[in-house]
Amino acid sequence: MISATHTHSGPAGYLDQVLYQVTSYGIVPGEREALAAGIVSAIVAAHNDLSASSLEIGVGQLFDANINRSPPSYLANPAEERALYNGNTDTNMTQLAVRDAAGNLRGAASWFAVHGTSMNNTNDLVSGDNKGFASYLWELAQGSDFVAAFGQTNAGDVSPNTNGPVCQDTGAPCDGGKESCGGNILLCIAHGPGFTSAGDLGGDFASTRIIGTKQFETAREIAASGTGVTTTGPVLFRHAFVDMTDVVLPDGNHTCKPAMGYSFAAGTTDGVATQIAWQGDNTTNYDNPLIDIARDILHPPSAELTACQAPKPILLATGEMTFPYDWDPHVLPLQIFVVGRKFVIIGFPSEITTMSGRRLRKSTLDALIAGGTVDADAHIVIAGLSNHYASYVTTFEEYGVQRYEGASTLFGPHTLQAYQSLFSQMATSFSDPSASLAPGTPPADVKDLSFITAVVLDTTPIGSSFGAVTIQPPAVAHTGDTVTATFQCSHPRPGPGGPGSFMTVDVLNGGEWAVFLDDAGWDTKFHWKREGSSESLCVVTWNVGATVNVPAGTYRLTYNGVHTTFGFHASHSGSTDAFQ
Ligand code: ZN
């Protein structure tokens, strides 16, 4: 089970369907391979580190770290169902901790429902967002061989931007329905607790820190609380590839081929997309003739698709668009792990809303308990965005409101019921094999298309060389300073070369340079800029002591790159003068 988290700050260009490649101009060669190589090396490292361990389940509460970003949708759920819960987001963190035979904490996966969108979409640095920051902090605190994973669970309608949406021009609240400011949705943006004023880019970094730190602290408290419950027994699993486009439910309702509604184009207050639609367009008679013309040039939705997806007004008939290959997935991987008698993980290939997740957890756990597969006090979590990605899943009632999440629920109004039915069958199959789903067949690999220009040539000015320092750092720096150096560099796309990091902070230890921080660190930044047609300048910065304490000593900044000469690559590096 490979589970991702949402970020607006990651590299793109690796998913198989056209809709998810639009912003990256198709597949980005090299980038997908780098991601795959990293995942494989993590699996190999985990396999080689197998040893007898115990697994401990812990639960804690975390408040003030998430808000619901689509309250009008949530309110469409039945009042008696809403009354069962203390709010419109889940506030519990569920943890599976790993302890070795001596009882030492070796790693933990902690699931908490919040989007990794503390970094606004104006940020152009690669970042793991609040989940990545939580992971970084705990691994720093615990030591190098500790693994801290922070999972995204039923966070489909859950934002980390707890200040809520505000009009960026006036500071007034947005209109709560369309999320606009006097008709302009581009001004209605939600920020996190670190944001102070309009245009405050640093506020997003501060918000990421705050929301990430809260998750880290809660996770560490759960692990240290001594209240964990050990789960024992076999690890069981089920996996099936299911064609989600025509699942027929016992009541006769069925799913549809994929389609995106108008509100998909509006985006959310975590990341406004375009001004061409509102959130909450839920009439199939929606009258914007210009958009309809543009849509029909791409592909007019069939009458069958329009009826099946109602009341979603279809913007993109992605399920009927196959040029140059499928725009949205049709066949999806569904997976369950049963970890001993007391812990269950649903591998879910989409972002699922708060109430949808509650329903799916309950129906799946009920089936497992009824079959005697787990104990009555077992815990269940949804590992969102697992194994593939198929946008969002809302409840039937939320779908009717057609905000962003409903507009992005691919398989029509009965999508959630279909998933509940399928996961219940998988859960029942542990005790009753006749309930098993067919294993199915994985979707065929698609031919990769890339519309992004290849890197052809990197050069340096005459008399200079790759890795040459054009601006040196100061001779002395202190905690709280930002140390900066500029390098003659190359286009970063082929990769960092060298030790796998575009930059390092090195420390002098007994006459030898050793890596102190790399580009995964939160205190370091690597900026690249093209100069002319083939030259590049890279700026490396280090916020001394912002997250990682820095002992007095001798340091330098190092840059690593790969330059391209008409298809040939060579690696290079350069270091600054030493400084104190
Ligand atoms: Zn999302």
Automatic annotation (TrEMBL):
Q: Which InterPro entries match?
A: Ceramidase_alk, NCDase_C_sf, NEUT/ALK_ceramidase_C, NEUT/ALK_ceramidase_N
Question: Catalytic positions?
Answer: 159 (nucleophile)
Keyword Nucleotide-binding, does the record have it? no
UniProt keyword Hydrolase, yes or no: yes
Source organism (scientific name): Blyttiomyces helicus
Q: Which reaction does it catalyse?
A: an N-acylsphing-4-enine + H2O = sphing-4-enine + a fatty acid
Source organism, top-level taxon: Eukaryota
Cofactors demanded by this protein: Zn(2+)
A cellular component term, taken from the record's GO annotations: extracellular region
Q: Which family does it belong to?
A: Belongs to the neutral ceramidase family.
Occurrences of domain Neutral/alkaline non-lysosomal ceramidase N-terminal (ranges)? 1-420
Query: GO molecular function, one example?
Result: metal ion binding
UniProt name for this protein: Neutral ceramidase
Q: Cofactor binding mode, per the note?
A: Binds 1 zinc ion per subunit.
Check the record and name the Gene3D superfamilies matching this protein.
Neutral/alkaline non-lysosomal ceramidase, C-terminal domain
Q: Which Pfam families match?
A: Ceramidase_alk, Ceramidse_alk_C
Q: Supply the alphabetized keyword list.
A: Hydrolase, Lipid metabolism, Metal-binding, Sphingolipid metabolism, Zinc
Primary enzyme class? hydrolase
Where would I find the Neutral/alkaline non-lysosomal ceramidase C-terminal domain in this sequence?
A: 425-580
Instruction: Write out the residues that bind Zn(2+).
Output: 6, 115, 351, 392
| Known EC number | 3.5.1.23
What GO biological process, any one, is recorded here?
Answer: sphingosine biosynthetic process
